[in-house]
C-alpha cells in the first residue's frame, strides 16, 4: 500500500494508532538499549514505513463488524513490559526483591513527586498503547492471528517474569539452605572497659566510585579528606538484595541481605508488622550493652518500614520528617522526600548534645541523608550558597554537596568536643541508581563508601573483596567488642584476617545461592512467615566436594574439630 500523503488519509485512526505504537516501541528500544534519544524517532519512522509497505491496519479484506473484538492476548504481556521499562528507567536496575519488600513495608509518604509524575505519564501512555493495539488487532486479521504468539514471546522475554520463574525453579530443585549454614549468630564475647559512642552516617547513594577524579572531578573530595584521617575500605561491593536503602541498612547492621517476607509465600502482600524480627542486629547488641540509640532521617519513618525496623531493634528515639518538620524555623523548607540535610544535621547535633549531656552510658546515633538520592539529588540551600545554581539533574553537584555537608558535620561535632571517644562511620547505603553520570559509573568496577574515624582507628586503607554484610562485624570490632569467630550474620570483620564470603566464594556464587535460599529467609522473618512442616522422610546426607567445603558450610565447624581460628 502506498504511503499516504493526503491530509484526509493522515487523519485516519489507522495512522494515529500506528504512530502511538511506533512511538512506544521507539521509546522501549532506546530505554532498553541505551541508545540516544534521537533513536526514538528513527525507530518510529521505520515502524511507520514498514506498516505502510505491508498495509498494516488496512488489509484488503478488513474484519467484519461481527468479528471485531475489544481485547487482545498481548495486553497483559505489554503491561508487564511497560512496568519493567518504568522500573528500569527509574532505578537503573530492576530489583524484584525491592518491589516485593516495598509493597509490604509501605510506600506512603515516599515524597517522590517526580516519580509520581513519571508514573502517571507511563499510565496514560500505556492506556493509549492498549487502545491503539486493540484497534490494530481488531481491524487487521494478520495481527489478530499472530496476537497469541506475540503474547507468548513478550511473556517469555520479560526479565521480570524470568526472575520469578528462576527463583521458583531454584526453590523446588535445591535445599535452599546454603546461606543459612554460613550464618553465625551475632555474639559479643567481651566488652571494652570504656565503650566508645557511635555516630553512623549513611550517605544516600554516595558510593566510593565517585572518588575517581578522572571521571568525576572533585565531587568526592571532602570524603577523601575525611578518609585521610581515618581508615578507608576499598572493594565493598553490592550483593543482590542489598541495593536499596532498607536493604543496605539491614545488610550493614544485621549482616545479611534482605530477602522479603512475602516472596512466594502466603504473606506476599500483607502489611508488615515487624522488620526482620528473627535476627539480632547492631541495635539489639548495643542496647543490651547499655547504649542509648537514636535514629534521624529527613524522610518519613513510615516509608519502607524504617520506623518499624529501628523500633524493633533496640532504638529508643526514632525521628523522621513527621517529627522534625514542626521544629524547622521554616516549615516550608522541604524537598520531595522531607528535610534537606543541612536541617537534618542541625537536629543531629542537637540530639548528640542531648545524649552527651545525660552522661548515662555510651550513645549511638544513626543518620540517613537524602542529598544524593537519584535521579538528581536534593542539594541543600547551604550548598546552593556555596556551589552556585543547581540545574536539577547534575548528580555530581549533589555528590559534592553531600560530601561537604558530612565533612562539615563531623568537624562541627569535633569542635564542640562531642566526638571524644566516638567511632564515626561514614557509608553509602547502597550504590546509586540511574543518575546523570550513569554511563561513567557503570564503566568500571563500583564499590560502596565505608570509612571509619575515631581515636583508636588506624589511618590507612584496606582493600579487600567484601560486601555490605561485612560492615556489621567490622563496626562491632572497631567499637572494641570481641565477637565470636570475627563474624556476625554472614559478615566477617574486615579488621580481622578471616576471609569474607566474597573472598571465599565470589559475588556470583553468593548471588546464585541467594536465589535458591529459603532457610535464611525463614530465619529473618521468624514468627511472621508460615512455618515449614517437618518432612517425615529421612534426611539425605549431603556430599561435600572437599574438606575445606565441609568446614565452610558451617563457619564454627573448625572449632568442633579442634582447629584454632585465625586472629
UniProtKB/TrEMBL annotation:
Q: Where is this region: Disordered?
A: 524-567
Query: What is one term from the GO cellular component aspect held by the record?
Result: plasma membrane
- What ranges does the record list as Basic and acidic residues composition bias? 546-567
Top-level taxon in the UniProt lineage: Bacteria
Report the main location listed first in the record: membrane
Q: How does it sit in the membrane?
A: Multi-pass membrane protein
Subcellular location, record wording: Cell membrane
Keyword annotations for this protein?
Cell membrane, Membrane, Transferase, Transmembrane, Transmembrane helix
| Pfam families, per the entry | Sulfatase
What Gene Ontology terms describe what this protein does at the molecular function level? transferase activity
Residue ranges with Low complexity bias: 530-542
Domain Sulfatase N-terminal spans what residues? 197-480
Q: Does the keyword Transferase apply?
A: yes
Tell me where the transmembrane regions lie: 15-32, 38-58, 70-87, 116-136, 148-165
Q: What is this protein called?
A: Phosphatidylglycerol--membrane-oligosaccharide glycerophosphotransferase
Amino acid at each position: 500500500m502506498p504511503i499516504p500523503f493526503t491530509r484526509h488519509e493522515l487523519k485516519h485512526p489507522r495512522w494515529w494508532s500506528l504512530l502511538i505504537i511506533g512511538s512506544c516501541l521507539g521509546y522501549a528500544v532506546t530505554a532498553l538499549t541505551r541508545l540516544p534519544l534521537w533513536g526514538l524517532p528513527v525507530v518510529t519512522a521505520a515502524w511507520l514505513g514498514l506498516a505502510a509497505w505491508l498495509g498494516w491496519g488496512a488489509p484488503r479484506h478488513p474484519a467484519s463488524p461481527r468479528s471485531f473484538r475489544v481485547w487482545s492476548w498481548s495486553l497483559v504481556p505489554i503491561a508487564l513490559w511497560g512496568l519493567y521499562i518504568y522500573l528500569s528507567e527509574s532505578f537503573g536496575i530492576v530489583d524484584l526483591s525491592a518491589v516485593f519488600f516495598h509493597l509490604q513495608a509501605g510506600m506512603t509518604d515516599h515524597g517522590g513527586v517526580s516519580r509520581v509524575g513519571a508514573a502517571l505519564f507511563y499510565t496514560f501512555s500505556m492506556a493509549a498503547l492498549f487502545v491503539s493495539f486493540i484497534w490494530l488487532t481488531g481491524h487487521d486479521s494478520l495481527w489478530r492471528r499472530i496476537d497469541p504468539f506475540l503474547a507468548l514471546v513478550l511473556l517469555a522475554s520479560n526479565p521480570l517474569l524470568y526472575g520469578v520463574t528462576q527463583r521458583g525453579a531454584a526453590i523446588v530443585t535445591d535445599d535452599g539452605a546454603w546461606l543459612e549454614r554460613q550464618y553465625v549468630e551475632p555474639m559479643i564475647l567481651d566488652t571494652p572497659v570504656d565503650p566508645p559512642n557511635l555516630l553512623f552516617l549513611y550517605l544516600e547513594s554516595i558510593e566510593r566510585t565517585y572518588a575517581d577524579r578522572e571521571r568525576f572531578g572533585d565531587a568526592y573530595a571532602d570524603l577523601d579528606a575525611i578518609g585521610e584521617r581515618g581508615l578507608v575500605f576499598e572493594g565493598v561491593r553490592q550483593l543482590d538484595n542489598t541495593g536499596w536503602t532498607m536493604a543496605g541498612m539491614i545488610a550493614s547492621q544485621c549482616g545479611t541481605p534482605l530477602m522479603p517476607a512475602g516472596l512466594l509465600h502466603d504473606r506476599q502482600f500483607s502489611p508488615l508488622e515487624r522488620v526482620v524480627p528473627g535476627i539480632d542486629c547492631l541495635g539489639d547488641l548495643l542496647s543490651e550493652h547499655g547504649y542509648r540509640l537514636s535514629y534521624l532521617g529527613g524522610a518519613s519513618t513510615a516509608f519502607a518500614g524504617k520506623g518499624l525496623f529501628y523500633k524493633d531493634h533496640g532504638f529508643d528515639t526514632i525521628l523522621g520528617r513527621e517529627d522534625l518538620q514542626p521544629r524547622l524555623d521554616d516549615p516550608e523548607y522541604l524537598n520531595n522526600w522531607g528535610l534537606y540535610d543541612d536541617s537534618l544535621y542541625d537536629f543531629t547535633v542537637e540530639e548528640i548534645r542531648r545524649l552527651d549531656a545525660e552522661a548515662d552510658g555510651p550513645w549511638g546515633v544513626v543518620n540517613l541523608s537524602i542529598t544524593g538520592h537519584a535521579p538528581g539529588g536534593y542539594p541543600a540551600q547551604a550548598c546552593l550558597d556555596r556551589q552556585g545554581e543547581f540545574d536539577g539533574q547534575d548528580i555530581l553537584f549533589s555528590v559534592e554537596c553531600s560530601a561537604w555537608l558530612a565533612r562539615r558535620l563531623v568537624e562541627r561535632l569535633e569542635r564542640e568536643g562531642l566526638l571524644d571517644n566516638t567511632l564515626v562511620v561514614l557509608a553509602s547505603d547502597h550504590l546509586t541508581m540511574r543518575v546523570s553520570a550513569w554511563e561513567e559509573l557503570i564503566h568500571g568496577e563500583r564499590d560502596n563508601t565505608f570509612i571509619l574515624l575515631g581515636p583508636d582507628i588506624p589511618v590507612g586503607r584496606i582493600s579487600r573483596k567484601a560486601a555490605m554484610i561485612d560492615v556489621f562485624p567490622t563496626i562491632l570490632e572497631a567499637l572494641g567488642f570481641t565477637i565470636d569467630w570475627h563474624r556476625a550474620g554472614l559478615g566477617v570483620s574486615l579488621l580481622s584476617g578471616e576471609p569474607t564470603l566474597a573472598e571465599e566464594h565470589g559475588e556470583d556464587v553468593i548471588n546464585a545461592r541467594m536465589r535458591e535460599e529459603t532457610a535464611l529467609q525463614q530465619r529473618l522473618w521468624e514468627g511472621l512467615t508460615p512455618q515449614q512442616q517437618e518432612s517425615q522422610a529421612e534426611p539425605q546426607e549431603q556430599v561435600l566436594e572437599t574438606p575445606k567445603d565441609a568446614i565452610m558450610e558451617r563457619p564454627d565447624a573448625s572449632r568442633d574439630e579442634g582447629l584454632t581460628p585465625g586472629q
